[in-house]
Each structure stands twice: as C-alpha cells, then as structure tokens.
Design brief:
79 residues, alpha/beta, four-stranded parallel sheet, 4 strands, globular
Length: 79
C-alpha cells in the first residue's frame, strides 16, 4: 500500500517508515526538508511541495506525525 507519512525525518517518523517498509509498503515521506536515507519504495518530499499540490496518486493511508510549525509551537500554542 502507498502511504504518506508527515514528520518522517523525526525520531518517531523514521521508525514508522522503517516498519512500513519492512511490511512491504512504500510511498511519500515528508518533513521540513525531504527526509534523507529512505528505504527502497519511498520518495522524500519537502512539506511545502506536498501542501502546494494534490495528494500523490495512489495514497491509501496518511500517518500524520508532524507537529505545529508556525513559530508558536510548544506549550505557548496552548496558553
């Protein structure tokens, strides 16, 4: 199955990509910049490229791991 994983360059995202790849899945991995060193079957894309275009064809699942990135992040965003 083709998946879209946001936050793929982070600690949790890297593990999710490895687990999905081991199970035979591929797809698109996003981050602030394209995630490096992806397993075969995965394409790294910058977050802006994904947000500015229609979802890549064939995506069956989305795993959203990226946190808020507007500069206000952290506990201050909830104050």
């Amino acid at each position: 199955m083709e998946c879209l994983v946001t936050g793929a360059a982070g600690f949790v995202g890297r593990g999710v990509i490895e687990a999905l790849a081991a199970a035979g899945h591929g797809g698109s991995a996003t981050g602030r910049s394209p995630p490096p060193r992806l397993p075969p079957g995965w394409v790294g894309r910058a977050r802006g490229a994904i947000l500015a275009a229609p979802a890549p064809a064939g995506i069956g699942d989305i795993v959203h791991l990226e946190e808020q990135q507007d500069g206000a992040g952290g506990a201050a965003a909830f104050a």
